[in-house]
Specification:
By secondary structure, this protein is an alpha/beta fold. It has 18 helices and 13 strands. It is globular. The structure holds 4-nitrophenyl beta-D-glucopyranoside (PNW).
């Protein structure tokens, strides 16, 4: 007691000192994430094919906030050793990165393998392993080969077969070296924003294309998991899952209407992909089936705009996971929409909810992202109860702020979200085994170009060698990753402190 009081005097922080130190379980892992198009550059080098993001940013620079693209990005195709050295310095246990489909299969098809693509990822993996950093690979983080988009991309059912062929090439080459595999990153984002919104390839028909994309992605995921389960599990010696993004949806009041609206929002945004894979029954959430079927009918269509799985497909997709990858950033408040069925279909009209964020939730440099740490704990708990307590890996959590090395706001963000995660694990018994900060580096933030920076490391895009400089948050996260504990006073992590 005396000692506690004494240290409280020294640090001048009573509450933190008297509380027990916050430490994560012994085997808990900390890592960082990136994605191929956002960091690699070298878009047309050594046999790489064109991706939908190459095509889209080249044809429509005006649609990207700063009119830029990922042609060069962080140059990680050339500088991957620098990236690994940073991670070594950071002390993380694993690195989540994605493989670029068109770098490995320039036409998207597996009859022509680009040896330079295999070489690049082999060398990256070797470098990681030499530094005792476990590779966690995302097979698809949105950079579809353009040749496949020319066939309709994810709206074409044949894409599931082509993805299976691609996955086979990856597993043939890397199954022995990569223990953790993620088939897709955030189907909600690339199906809804890509095929029903403004992201590449720039969809036109929300309420049709986004559902077709989701359907084929779910089929593709089930097929790849099945292949892995039958032929590669013994070589991988780890696991395979899918990464879904969950913004927490909180009823704006406790009224029944608002609570139902919040649950509807969760089902439309998360259940769409989670229910077929992680629920006991499988298939789409009942509320999606019911609403989209009914709306389609009212709109005069002879069949539902939401496709139907065969019984075999339901069975194949259900249970196709060893873990659930969870990306979480922010929270919304929800109330019911106007309930009107528009003559022109859309995903939003089908869901028919209104989303808000409170003005007093702290802002970030991304309009959609406000700081709401308690939503993280609620999201994890909802997943635990809704999907029968799955093993979860947090595959992304992060925040954008203005450039600068003294990013105390980012330190604050990570610390508050980690406290929420810690409560979910230790008090609520959510089975979360890893946390991944997005991102190791500033990078090409899709439609927001380089204007939004999520990095623990700042990248100087004006310097010829794309100089990387660790921020204050890098030092903070280093403490967390190497000790497994949160510092008692994160304000100690001033820029020069480590
Ligand atoms: C993720 N939301 O997308 C992506 O996986 C990353 O590539 C991206 O850089 C990162 O987040 C930061 O934007 C998300 O609305 C997009 O909740 C939107 C949401 C969440 C994640």
């Amino acid at each position: 007691m005396l000692l506690l009081l004494f240290s409280a005097l020294i640090y001048g922080v009573e509450s933190n000192i008297i509380d027990a130190k916050i430490c994560f379980p012994e085997e808990f892992m900390f890592g960082v994430a990136t994605a191929s198009y956002q960091i690699e550059g070298a878009w047309n080098v050594s046999g790489k094919g064109e991706s939908i993001w190459d095509r889209y940013t080249h044809e429509h620079p005006d649609r990207v906030f700063d009119h830029k693209n990922g042609d060069v990005a962080d140059g990680s195709y050339y500088k991957y050793k620098d990236d690994v050295a940073l991670m070594k310095q950071l002390g993380v246990g694993f690195y989540r990165f994605s493989m670029s489909w068109p770098r490995i299969l320039p036409t998207g098809l597996s009859n022509e393998i680009n040896e330079d693509g295999i070489r690049y990822y082999t060398e990256l993996i070797e470098e990681l392993r030499a530094n005792r950093i476990i590779p966690m690979v995302t097979m698809y983080h949105w950079d579809l080969p353009q040749t496949l988009q020319d066939l309709g991309g994810w709206t074409n059912p044949v894409m599931a077969d082509y993805f299976l062929d691609y996955a086979k090439v990856l597993l043939d080459n890397f199954a022995d070296k990569v223990p953790i595999w993620i088939t897709f990153n955030e189907p909600l984002s690339f199906c809804h924003d890509g095929y029903g919104g403004e992201d590449a390839p720039g969809g036109r028909a929300s309420g049709f294309e986004d559902y077709m994309c989701g359907h084929n992605v779910l089929r593709a995921h089930g097929m790849v998991y099945d292949l892995y389960d039958r032929e590669y599990r013994h070589r991988v010696k780890g696991g395979m899952g899918i990464t879904l993004d969950i913004a927490w949806m909180e009823g704006i009041t406790s009224s029944t209407e608002d609570q139902i609206a919040a649950e509807t929002a969760r089902q439309f945004m998360f259940g769409w992909f989670a229910n077929p894979i992680f629920s006991k029954t499988g298939d789409y959430p009942a509320v999606m089936r019911k609403r989209i079927d009914a709306n389609s009918k009212k709109q005069g269509f002879p069949r539902s705009r939401l496709p139907t799985f065969t019984r075999e497909e339901v069975k194949m997709i259900r249970g196709s996971f060893d873990f659930m990858g969870v990306n979480h950033y922010t929270t919304y408040l929800v109330e019911p929409g106007d309930g009107k069925v528009q003559p022109h279909p859309s995903y939003y009209n089908d869901g028919n909810v209104k989303l808000y964020q409170l003005v007093d939730w702290p802002k970030t440099n991304s309009t959609w992202l406000r700081v709401v740490p308690w939503g993280f704990r609620k999201a994890l708990n909802w997943i635990k109860t809704t999907y029968n307590d799955p093993l979860m890996l947090v595959t992304e959590n992060g925040v954008s702020f203005e450039p600068g090395l003294k990013d105390v706001k980012r330190v604050q963000f990570i610390d508050s979200y980690l406290r929420s995660l810690h409560a979910a694990i230790t008090i609520d018994k959510c089975r979360v085994k890893a946390y991944t900060y997005w991102s190791l580096l500033d990078n090409f933030e899709w439609m927001r170009g380089f204007s939004e920076r999520f990095g623990l490391t700042e990248v100087d895009y004006d310097s010829p060698d794309l100089t990387r400089t660790p921020r204050q948050s890098f030092n903070y996260y280093k403490y967390v990753a190497t000790t497994g504990c949160l510092p008692n006073n994160y304000a100690d992590f001033t820029y020069n402190s480590v």
